[in-house]
Amino acid sequence: MQLTNDLRLALSKNELFIEYQPIVDLKTANVHKAEALLRWRHPEKGLISPAEFIPIAENTKLINEIGSWVLTQAIQQCAVWRRQINGRFQISVNKSPIQFYDRRPEHVDWITLLAEDPQLERAIVIEITEGLLLDATGQVKARLESYKENGIQVALDDFGTGYSSLAYLQKFDIDYLKIDQSFVANLETVLDNRVLCRTIIDMAHSLGMAVIAEGIENKVQKDILLQAGCDYGQGYYFSKSLSPLDFEAYVNINNN
Ligand code: C2E
Ligand code: MG
Ligand code: MG
What is the pTM assigned to this prediction? Predict the structure, then answer.
């Protein structure tokens, strides 16, 4: 209850901030993508994990306001990094199902903003999870289609942990599959995980999607995924999530 009350004020008290985790092109080792990850620095409790506060934000619907803020920040940051790092820089933003069911036309503004600025074409990728597609109403489908029409790409997060109904991969226009970290962990020792990763990559490519592997923690895992044809990787082996300044320093050292 206390945490819920605190979260209500967190945005106006500037306690929320965003870190960016590099998404690495496995073939070139360059970083032209990042995932925006929300952080909450609580005045007494210190850093609170999104795993703990996102569910609270969802239950109270605060996620609508917070989510809009994350998106606005990410768009501004992407505009800067498109000038500074790469003209096609992309930032992916996690979007909760609750936000899709919000009936207010809250995000028409950012869609228009992105659609009207040629510098921001394909700047934002929206990360959704399998659950959203499983019981997608007309409203969800309409929103996903409006993304497509306005140059906003869609990634399917944590792939393989939900129902993994393959029917919706055809039904919805998905640009990226993100292989869940549970398949990437132990990739070097568990043969089954290696088979699953390779199968997911082949299937995604056949359907015209690019693949991002999450939770890469060592070089062996990276090499196995690269060899299996995986397009992008994300994980502590490359970098944890970083402040914008640290991200810029990382890219300066890392990119060719
Ligand atoms: P996610 O979208 O699947 O994000 C990936 C999570 O894996 C992040 O945790 C990231 O820090 C962590 N991670 C990255 N590399 C590694 C690795 O090599 N090993 C391990 N063990 N973990 C790694 P984080 O930042 O704690 O976020 C947890 C979840 O909270 C996210 O999972 C996402 O579902 C949610 N979340 C974060 N920010 C937002 C947001 O702005 N909006 C919404 N709706 N959800 C968010
Ligand atoms: Mg994500
Ligand atoms: Mg994930």
Answer: 0.97
